[in-house]
Specification:
CATH topology of the largest domain in chain B: Alpha-Beta Plaits
Number of domains of chain A: 1
Distance between the termini of chain A: 25 Å
Helix content of chain B: 40-55%
Structural class of chain A: mainly alpha
Strand content of chain A: under 5%
Order of helices and strands of chain A: HHHHHHHEEHHHHH
Strand order of the largest sheet of chain A: 1-2
Number of helices of chain B: 10
Largest interface: A-B, 14 and 13 residues
Largest sheet of chain B: 3 strands, antiparallel
Radius of gyration of chain A: 20 Å
Oligomer: heterodimer
Order of helices and strands of chain B: HEHEEHEEHHHHHHH
Helix content of chain A: 55-70%
CATH class of the largest domain in chain B: Alpha Beta
Number of domains of chain B: 3
Distance between the termini of chain B: 78 Å
Number of strands of chain A: 2
Largest sheet of chain A: 2 strands, antiparallel
Amino acid sequence: MATSVFALEPLWLALLLQALAAVLLFLIGALVVGYLEHKVLAHMQDRLGPMEAIWHGIGQLPADGLKFLQKEDIIPTAADRWVFALAPAVAVVPGVVIIAVLPFGPGLWLTDLDAGIFFALAASGVTVLGTLMAGWSSANKFSLMGGLRGAAQLISYELPLVLAAAAIVIQAGTLSLPGIVEAQHGFTLFGVPMIYGVPHIIGLGLFFVAALAELSRPPFDMPIADSELIAGHMTEYTGMRYAFFMLSEYAGMVILSALATVLFLGGWYPWPGVGLPEGAAGMVLGFVITFAKILVLSAIMVWLRATFPRMREDQLQRLSWSVLIPLGLLNVVLVATAKVWF
Amino acid sequence: MAAPSLPGSGLLKGLRVTLKTMLSPATTAQYPHVKPELPPRTRGVIALMEENCTVCMLCAKECPDWCIYIDSSKETVPVEGGRTRTRNVLDRFAIDFALCMYCGICVEVCPFDALFWSPEFEYAEVDIRELTHEKDRLRAWMDTVPPPPPLEEGAVPPAEIEAGIAAARKEAEEAAAKAKSVAEGGAAAEAQGPQIDEELFARLVAEGTPERAARAKAKAAFVKAQKQRAAEGGAPTAPAQGEAKAGEAEAQGPQIDEELFARLVAEGTPERAARAKAKAAFVKAQKRREREEEGGQ
């Protein structure tokens, strides 16, 4: 198996490059997916979306970022200042941290942890903390309700996410994300090279629905339900701090799409059994293929957002605890049985 | 769609709708780059046909928010062989579009077709005082007033247009008749061998003039008469022109002064404005023609 391109000799240089790459990937991924959402959502609503910034509104999000920078940074008098100020950073950190273990191509990962998938899911659980901190410290009833809804939602949907991933781990026999991609590369279903997504169709569905809920994206956007809670835990935030929350949402789309790509769609390989050329060409091609898969999944997330209305809070909880989690457990049992059988 | 018993079919139906909408072109009009296609009766701005205004003040009186300002003065007009008359002169006509609520009552109420709606709407100002458009500015809007829509099929054309067509047709007929008579006269004359004034010849012979002298005299008289007739008949192309004019008047829906229109377009005036001006010129010319005719009869 290929080693990371960041495995350089002086450790400080490797660390510096890794940190830089993680932040860049985080920002670029968020901007690209953000633009995708702007445009796809607009066209699904029979409009054009941003059209003025540079070319077809391609510079809209950087321009928005510049605007956010100029905004006044308001901290409510009654707010818990330190927690309030820290919450956006806490929301952003898990995203950057998870990028560290995501493989974007052969050798294109920052580090290959043996427990990569475990690390990624654990880190994504930290997002709850940011939401709760923001909700609690804002001294605003809407923020508080949004924060509590967010906490309840993120915790209950962590389970189906983990169960779907656990089934893949049983199938692949490894927790390492590049390892899962390589294992999937050699996977055959009745002699036909196949991505995990086909036999794990239940797992893919579970993972995708749970990912939507984890990201608080419609139809699971109760924590920020704008018609009920203004903006949930983000109600009191302005300027750059608010932009951080938005950034972490878009980056979250990239990250969970990337995870789904690795677990179910064959990672950087166009199809299991179809190899990539050696060296730099393979890296570039692998990166392009990975990113294309990520964009397709993100576009589906936007598609669902454009189509479905928000669910009610109790419907959301019932869906998770009485449908998704039993289904996830069943999925694990089935996969484990099949793994032993064949 | 699938039977309602199939769970989740509604979700797929919804997904299909959004996907179809995404793949069809958006209805958004990129406004500042693409100007809107406004219907001709759009209430954009009110234009003033200053020449038609008689300062009757009806518009200013009927305006619900009193945003029309009119100043006028009397002018004495000397009349030959009679006592002098007074005439109203429009000194100021202004509409404050900051107050105007675009009800269009002034346009409706104007008895002399001096106020019109124009679809132009881009006249926002930084200073609210600039929204009071004075006479010259209101007159300039007149260039943007679209021509009236073509009449419905089978509708009775307006009286002035009908009169214009009738006048043109009459003119053409007269010219054609004259040309015909000239042509007939010419043909008859050619048929005769030595062309002479038969009547004069007979008279002179009866009076005892020698036949040769009488024939010469009669011949001279005939040629003279023919020349005179030719001069009266005018150029031989006249009937064709008259006919063409009548045909043109009938063929055109909204009648405009083609020559003026072409010149204005060449000068760079927007086509709509040019058409409006040309139309105004045409109607004016037609009215003048009518008046002359009435005076002649």
